[in-house]
Amino acid sequence: MVMRNFYILFFTLIPFFGYTQVDPKATEETVSLYAQLKTIGAKGTLFGHQDSPAYGLNSDQTRWIGENGRSDIKSIIGEHAAVIGFDLGHLELDKEANLDDVPFDKIRELILENYARGGVTTISWHPNNPLDYTKTTWDKVENTIPVILGKGKEFRKYRKSSLDKLARFFHSLESEDGAKIPIIFRPYHEHTGSWFWWGADYCSPQEYQEFWQKTVEYLTKKKKVHHLLFAYSTDNFGSEEHYLERYPGDKYVDILGFDSYHRNAPASNEQFVKNARRMLGTVRKLGLEKDKPWAFTETGLERVTENNWWTNIVLPILEDNQAAYFMVWRNGRPDHYYAPYPGQHSEQDFKEMAASGKVFFEKQAREADLYNKYK
User: Is there a contact between 131 and 147 (Cβ–Cβ < 8 Å)?
Assistant: First the structure.
């Protein structure tokens, strides 16, 4: 324990030796996870799935919901995803369940179980518009961020109505031994597009940067949430300059990522691989320069219509790019799913990807002991 504390103190106090974590007061487990994410990509890429243990599809395409210990991934390969995503949209509305009807108490329970298995949790957030909570994330209320930043009382209101509730939820994520469970938090994502109220058409780059910075500072300094890793996650981008246009700065970002979905397959297969490799190569270059981990934070092909999507599309994208993880979206219903389920026609190809040794699942995450690097 003495040596472990020495490492944490060393890396915290001497950032110019390569320690680049946002929160200098991060918990030991969070420091360890961050360090591991920076190196695991050289061995293999962690597989992630949104809402994986919360619900899924049966072989007849009926839904299963809330069955303990179950996930579509486990039903196919015998183990869960290494990274599991959840969303906290509607927490700001004091709802009992999120925007996908998963109770927040259930999300908390599943996060604790995932941590106990050695898995990683990432959280996105699709909050309703804070200037008018009757408007969803997708309702295009212009100038939301400029209004919040332009009047002190509006940001104070935003902190109370939204960020305080986030902080309480994050603080509630505590294991049986008292450890705060590290979370990759991915707020205000896909901001290079304009389908969310924080999108590119609704605020300037400088306003987005300030909004991000104030969020990070409030959660870590004022609310003392010290078990978060902050992931910066654009949508498709055209160049390195485009990717960095709204980047809030190295002091405010732990993980570099981007979201990109495969559409119009099979006609677009070659182009999707090419573009995804280009973008992943860019975040890899920046990650190496900035000494930060990088990831393909959200992707997928709806209904996985290509039988060999996993080996013919995913593996070529990941090859040589050393991403810490990639995550596909949720298995929500028969017309909206992104991972195979028993009997789905890409099931065998998914098993081949899992057997390739290039993509890691629950067992490899547990063996890597992601939260205890300094033991």
Answer: yes
Residue type for position 135: K
Rounded to whole angstroms, the Cα distance separating 119 from 129 reads 32
Sequence-ordered strand ranges (E) for the chain: 45-50, 55-57, 63-65, 83-87, 120-124, 183-186, 228-234, 255-262, 294-301, 325-328, 359-360
Tokens of 263: 């559409």
d(C-alpha 212, C-alpha 47), whole Å: 27
Residue 76 backbone phi and psi in degrees, to 5: -95, -45
pLDDT-based confidence at 17, cuts 50/70/90? very low
pTM here is 0.94
**Angle formed by the axes of helices 28-40 and 2-13, nearest 10°:** 70
CA distance 172 to 143: 33
DSSP summary character for residue 250: G
Is-contact 163 94, C-beta < 8 A?
A: no
Plot region of 279 (φ>0 → left; ψ -120 to 50 → alpha; else → beta): alpha
101: alpha, beta or left? (left if phi > 0; alpha if psi -120 to 50): left
Confidence check: pLDDT of 8 > 90? no
363, 79 Cβ separation under 8 angstroms: yes
Confidence of residue 374 (pLDDT cuts 50, 70, 90): low
Count Cβ atoms below 10 Å from residue 342 Cβ, excluding itself: 13
Given a contact cutoff of 8 angstroms between Cβ atoms, the answer to whether 137 and 197 are in contact is yes
What is the amino acid identity at position 24?
P
In sequence order, the 6+-apart residues with CB closer than 8 A to the CB of 197 are: 129, 135, 137, 139, 140, 141, 144, 145
Of 21, 28, 42, 41, nearest to 83 by C-alpha is 41
Give the angle subtended at the CA of 296 by the CAs of 294 and 299, to the nearest 5°: 170
- Cβ contacts of 127 within 8 Å, gap of 6 or more: 88, 89, 90, 91, 92, 137, 162
Q: Which residues contact 189 (CB under 8 A, 6 or more apart)?
A: 124, 231, 233, 234, 235, 259, 297, 298
C-alpha–C-alpha distance, residues 335 and 289, integer Å: 41
Looking at residue 11, its pLDDT comes to: 41
Q: How far apart are the first and last CA of the chain?
A: 7
